[in-house]
Amino acid sequence: MSETMSDTGYLDGQVPDPGQAAPDEPASLHSRLKEHCDRVHAWPGFMAQELGSLRTPELFRLVRKLGLRHRLYGTDPARRVEVLPPWHAAAVAAPRHEMSTWTRAQLLHFLSRMPKRVSQRLQHVWQVNVQPEFLVRKAFTRHALTFMATPETCRFREGERFIPLDLARAAHMSVRMHWFGPDQAGPMWDLKLLRFELDADTHRVFLGGNALNSTGEMRSRCERAYLFNYAPHRGNSDVLLDSHAEEVIASGLDLHWALEQSVLDPSGRKPEGFDLPSVWLGFEDPGDVDIEPEAPGLQQVAFNEVLFWFQARKPAKWPRLPCLGSVEVGEPIMVKGWKRKPTPASGFGSKLRHPGNCWTDIAEQLGEADATHLLLEVMDKSQAETRDGLSLWPLAYFAPGSPQKPARKAVRAFLDFEGLMGRALCDPRLKQATEPRLAKCQVAWLQDRSRLVGYSNDISFDFESVPPWVSHKFQAVRD
């Protein structure tokens, strides 16, 4: 990095020492803001321009001296609310995580009057740089994950369920001890932007991690890795946030906030892993690929459908799989556009005496022909379409190492984010609003960092690796 002072006030990209005085400290601005805080008044709007003109070290020192975040988590309820306006007096008895929401709501209301890049820098300083130490310590075993529609866009198109796999990105955040000097170490927040990749030969989908390309050179699926402790700045850097990457910064702040809320609300659910999107393949013609009865994913879906039918006490009409119910003699069943043999009046259900423990038990009762017919109907019922008219099927419906190479025949691969949308946002009225066009911020409790590498939902993930050329900047003191 250059040896010049940037417009953010950072020398060599380093965070200023809180114990050192920043140059030209805005004493008058500090006294005016402190007066408003001591009188329990909201910050006036005209101060937004003055705060936005400060360099980051000055802004960092100012917010730290005001002690807003530390007052909030004090032991005395009266001190915890002295930064709140009088009309929020009812929040005195509120739990700590709700108190935090009140204060953040004030901040967001104040930041709404500022330019986007300036407001993100102030929000970053308030939320990350002056975060109370005990919150950082308790977050060491927590990890947060969310998804972006493209590398530059957080928001998904309304009503869009399938996102091209090559466009979608995952954002992962965690905290651990890092070396940031010869003899200096401290907790650092890592923000990684990861991309998905489909291997057409092995049918494996990768998220993050490093691999060798065809020429033997190392390449990384970790598109960017940031040290999130550093406030956004103007200009490119290996590990510092560029203030122009507003969507990435917004995702990072939401992940950081979700991690903090998980610490403040210990009664919440403690998942030990992340929910990942499912992978689908898109074809121009449904006849481009044929059924693969030996595919474990297709067999599992068919077994679950039969199990649901048994749990519903074997109804005569079962729209999810009509072949299990009553079918008139001679009536052909249409599957994937092809006419199949007429089924008996009682349907396949008459042959099923018990659900068994796996698909093999079902296939033995039905016989090979009827079992294949049932799998065809499951495949037909699962078919989806994109806005471009492509026919989609889950990647799991094809066996690993399939000889028909469906991943190569597919026009494009997609990710299904159903069930993963709806990000909780802080509402100024202390209500959790949900943005349906943003992916959820998931928080997982992982005591062992080795669990950041694994396999789930047809995806091999690696949330630990960073690009080799910046790995020395992410050297951990301990894992």
SSE arrangement:
Layout: H1 27-38, H2 47-52, H3 56-66, H4 68-72, H5 77-80, H6 96-111, H7 116-129, H8 133-138, E1 142-148, E2 162-164, E3 169-179, E4 185-199, E5 204-208, E6 210-212, E7 218-220, E8 222-227, H9 246-264, E9 278-283, H10 296-311, E10 334-335, E11 338-339, H11 359-366, H12 368-382, E12 384-385, E13 391-394, H13 406-409, E14 412-416, E15 421-426, E16 432-439, E17 442-445, E18 453-456, E19 459-462
Share of helix among residues?
A: 25-40%
SS summary, helix count = 13
- Going by helix content, strand content and strand pairing, the class is alpha+beta
Number of strands: 19
Distance between the termini: 27 Å
Can you tell me the residue ranges where pLDDT is under 50 for at least 5 consecutive residues?
1-25, 73-99, 327-346
Instruction: Note the main sheet.
Output: 8 strands, mixed
User: Mean pLDDT score, rounded?
Assistant: 76
**Principal-axis shape:** elongated
What is the C-alpha radius of gyration, as a whole number of Å? 27 Å
User: How much β-strand is present in the residues?
Assistant: 15-25%
